[in-house]
Amino acid sequence: MNLGDSVGVLRGVGPKKIQALNKLGVNTIEDLLTFYPFRYNDIAVKNLEEINSQEKVTLKGIVASEPVLVRFGRKKSRLNFKLLINHDVIGVTFFNQPWISKQVTTGQELAVYGKYDALRQSLSGIKIISRKTNDFVGVYRSSKDIKESIIKQLVKQAYDEYNSYIKDVVPESIRIKYRLENRKQMIHDIHFPSTKKEADLARRSAIFDEFFSFEAGLQLLKRDNHKNMGLRIKYNNEKLKEFIKGLPFELTKAQKRVVNEICADMLSPNHMNRLLQGDVGSGKTIIAAIAMYATVTAGFQAVLMAPTEILAQQHAEKLANLFEQYGISVALMTSSSLSRVKVKRELLKHLKNGDIDIVIGTHAVIQDNIEFHNLGLAITDEQHRFGVNQRRILRKKGVNPEILAMTATPIPRTLAITTYGEMDVSIIDELPKGRQPVKTSWVKKKQVKNVFEFVKRQLELGTQAYIISPLVEESELLDLQNAEEVFEKAKEYFGSEKVALLHGKMDANEKEQAMQAFKNKEVSILVSTTVIEVGVDVPNATVMIILDADRFGLAQLHQLRGRVGRGSKESYCILVADPKSEYGKERMKIMTETNDGFLISQKDLELRGPGEVLGKKQSGLPEFKVGDPVVNLNILQVAQEEAHNVVFSPNFETKEENFELIKYLNRQFAQEEIID
Ligand SMILES: Nc1ncnc2c1ncn2[C@@H]1O[C@H](COP(=O)(O)OP(=O)(O)OP(=O)(O)O)[C@@H](O)[C@H]1O
């Protein structure tokens, strides 16, 4: 017997229930024991003086009238009686629970849980409370396939049978320091507390437990990264200085700092595993270029992976220009550039024999048959778009290449430790000189004509504009229809020779053509779906129109807006939307109030509410069961600090109080390997 046993070992759990539980994310006994209540009902008896109207409470008194049951229709009924509480009489009504009339007799003492109405002096009954139950009861998530009452029973059964197998992951000294319960007690109290205080303490312990185990895993990765001998990239400092001097602009202070951090990592024998965070347009690409240049001067190859073909193409073009005078060869590798057999064969040959110094590509780069001569540095752009596995495969391509991951801050600074805890972080917190904040406004749909007029006037000044077509969730086809519709309208209004269309269903060549036409100013307007979202850099474009802007997430709007304001000209972003909810309006307002990506991602998380915050997909954050990284940030930070101290202490593996933690981490990593 152990906590890894399937829930199928419990009495009364057959294939159907197993399936229903699995759907709720419960596969093992451990999952069930940590399937915590999401809230509690306080059914302790209250006095009339201490309660508010519309509150759900338990009231106890003497039944002061004969219960009267009235049935109407086939299934409907109403049961009425009076309850005498000290000197007050309140009316109690139960709807559609006729069997309750049998449990009520005049003169009897009775406790009823229900919703209290102060004005009417009445209680709308939910259930009769029998003496045996606890005052404080957990409420669990359930589904149509499995009722809450069954889940409760199973949790109880699992606890009774398995509690002696529950071991502590958080070392004792830390539990004592923060006055946390041991795991067995904590699991008991979080499911079956007798008071609110008990439940609160158990929950605090559970949050710590969860954050600590997670952070310990990340810290272990970090420690191993440090221990692993990395490559020593002995770049040519003179050449590097010349290269930086030769750039068309001076680096910002933040960029210089980051370059120094990266250079120090490369020179050190330790393995580099660094995350570069910087707001949209802060100049991350040039940092990548500098790091790649340095790598090549040391005799190694470098690769940069971008999340889209458009972006890979753009990077390849820019970097090829930049590196040309230094005799460095740059190759583009995407699914389309590799689709012609002959081209592919040549590319692979030159990559393997070291003729190619730098590769820019999409995930096509990590295909099995691609071999490098001596890969020294791997950079991923917008890394949240790459899965952990893709990152790992890339890592395996070289002996142990230095890793630099770049992201335009989808995650607030304080939260970066949750996902990137195993990485060292560099931040570009400054925009290049001369940038003006993008002026953002929000208009209603009926004003779209005025918006078009505004665009026209701006184009007359020689600038260019993007129009982003509405997004229809989960339907690329409808997105496309929308984009085509907007394209037609724009052609009608601005003249067909002025407008190009870009969408995800176009093949790489068509996309490239549309982008080139826009870059070369052959067209002044690019109508696009969100394929344009990340990284596209056309400094002459100064107007961004986003139609139905309320359908996009805040982080996405910020990314889209980041396509303008990339030069020194005044830039504008106009959000066209009729949001219905307050929440939707609030989001539009935030966009008009700030240009700070960190702040926006923080707001995005706050506005989504805890349930959604944990959605992996939207926020890039890992999922937790009880802990909410936004609400419980303090606990998260302390847990990270402690996990770091434990894992990095010299006697981590030999100290007895860490044994359970080590076992736990081994189990976790074993699971991950299977997925790999
Ligand atoms: N120090 C600097 N001074 C002036 N211009 C700069 C500087 N650094 C970068 N730029 C320019 O700023 C623009 C934005 O840079 P870049 O494309 O690297 O941004 P980014 O951080 O990758 O942004 P995004 O996340 O939006 O892709 C580019 O046109 C680049 O040439």
Description:
It comes from Ligilactobacillus salivarius (strain UCC118) (Lactobacillus salivarius). One of its GO terms (biological process) is DNA recombination. It holds the Pfam family DEAD. This is ATP-dependent DNA helicase RecG. Its EC number is 5.6.2.4. By secondary structure, the protein is α/β, with parallel strands linked by helices. It folds into five domains: about 55 residues, DNA polymerase, domain 1; about 90 residues, Nucleic acid-binding proteins (OB fold (Dihydrolipoamide Acetyltransferase, E2P)); about 60 residues; about 190 residues, Rossmann fold (3-Layer(aba) Sandwich), CATH 3.40.50; about 160 residues, P-loop containing nucleotide triphosphate hydrolases (Rossmann fold, 3-Layer(aba) Sandwich), CATH 3.40.50.300. The chain is built from 22 helices and 21 strands. The strands form four sheets. The chain has a seven-stranded parallel beta sheet with strand order 11-12-10-13-14-9-15, with helices on both faces. It has a six-stranded parallel beta sheet with strand order 16-21-20-17-19-18, sandwiched between helices. A five-stranded mixed barrel has the order 2-4-5-7-6. Strand 20, helix 17 and strand 21 form a beta-alpha-beta unit. Helix 18 runs antiparallel to helix 19. The longest helix is centred in the first third of the chain and has 32 residues. The chain is globular and about 100 Å long. The two termini are about 30 Å apart. The structure holds adenosine-5'-triphosphate.
